[in-house]
Amino acid sequence: MEQRRGVRFIFEDGNMNVDGNVNVNVNVNVYLDAPWIVLVLFVCFLFTCGKASSNPLTVSDCGAGGTFVPFSSVQFEPLTMQQGRRWILIRLLLHVVATLQLGYAVYYDYHYAKLPAMAVELRMEAPLGGKFKYLTFLNGLLQTGYHLLALSCDLWTLRGLHRLRDYLLASIVLPLGLTVSITFWALCGLYRESVYPDFLVRIYPVWLNQTMHTHVVVYALLDLCVAPHRYPQRKQGLAGLGIAMGCYLVWLHLVHYSTGIWVYPFLSALFAPLRWCFFALIVGLSFGCYLLGERLNYALWAQ
User: Fold this and answer.
1) What does the alpha-carbon distance between residue 107 and residue 100 come to, in Å, rounded to a whole number?
2) Are the C-beta atoms of 59 and 66 separated by less than 8 Å?
3) What's the confidence (pLDDT) of residue 38?
4) Among 57, 83, 157, 278, which is least packed, fewest CB within 10 Å?
5) Contacts of 139 by beta carbon, 8 Å cutoff, 6+ apart
């Protein structure tokens, strides 16, 4: 525990009181969770890669001389019954756990993780869109829906469901999850008081923060590792991602145009050209995450 002097926000019955120059007890250890979770994720990823190297799902026509072949053209050899059951159980367990944890996190975020009503009067929050103006919440909804869809694919072998699952993971779920996580933790490391200030822990607890900004990536990458996915053609996948990112940017500017308040307060400190550069960087990062997911999927499942 560390003693800090500053401003304390006290929330009682939906009201906000501000006390100046008071001692605040802050548990600084909670902000060190992200590196450890990334380390655990890396170990899990290496373990899964080792499993994938002996995976019976082998590619019969990858091309000569190590030439890259689009994953949509890869053909797999069938699994034995025992091996198929093992991988099905692993996928079932992953998707059940992911659906339950992310679903509860989204539910808690929507119903309980709210700023007091006075935050709107103090212009700390835009009075439009509710939770649906935050990319983190929208991403949580998307990730929960995806794992529910993936769970359905584990239970029913419908070609249409599998195609939808593969397209969503490739074009939106994995790139958006990585983009949200990387952006949040980068900004949190640089300007934590502007992104996740001390008083916000009272409203948005640490476990919820970790679930919405870290565990979403863990589940998406593990899903990539335990199940083969057929990526769409690159232009189709990037088009879907570009449309999703473009729609959110339009929604973000619509909220600002209607209320005069940016959804994320740090945007108000940026000049317009710098702000547009930031948006371009985020979109470029999401495209890079798409390519990363494509290469990881090919490396795991195309020997």
Assistant:
1) 10
2) no
3) 54
4) 157
5) 176, 177, 180, 212, 216
Q: Hey, is 26 helix, strand or coil?
A: strand
What pTM does this model have?
0.75
Residue with tokens 């059951």: 85
d(CA 61, CA 46): 25
pLDDT in tens, 244-284: 999 999 999 999 999 999 999 889 889 999 999 999 999 99
pLDDT the model gives residue 23: 37
Where the chain has pLDDT below 70, the residues are 1-84, 303
Give the residue among 95, 119, 59 at the shortest CA–CA distance from 222. 95
Contact 179, 282 (CB under 8 A): yes
Q: Which residue has the tokens 């006290």?
A: 10
CA angle 130, 134, 137 (to 5 degrees): 95
With residues binned 3-state (H G I as helix, E B as strand, rest as coil), the percentages for the chain, rounded to 5, are 70, 10, 20
Question: How far is 275 from 284, CA to CA, in rounded Å?
Answer: 14
Gap between the Cα atoms of 144 and 125, Å rounded: 25
Cα(148)–Cα(165) distance, rounded to whole angstroms? 10
What pLDDT does residue 302 have? 76
The DSSP output letter for 76 is B
Token pair for residue 113?
């993780």
Do 225 and 298 meet the contact criterion of CB atoms below 8 Å apart?
A: no
* Average pLDDT taken over every residue of the chain: 79
- Residues 141/106, Cβ–Cβ less than 8 Å: yes
Best CA proximity match to 70, nearest among 244, 235, 250, 261: 235
Tell me, what's the pLDDT at 199? 82
Residue 144 CB neighbours (<10 A): 22
In contact, 34 and 206? CB cutoff 8 Å: no
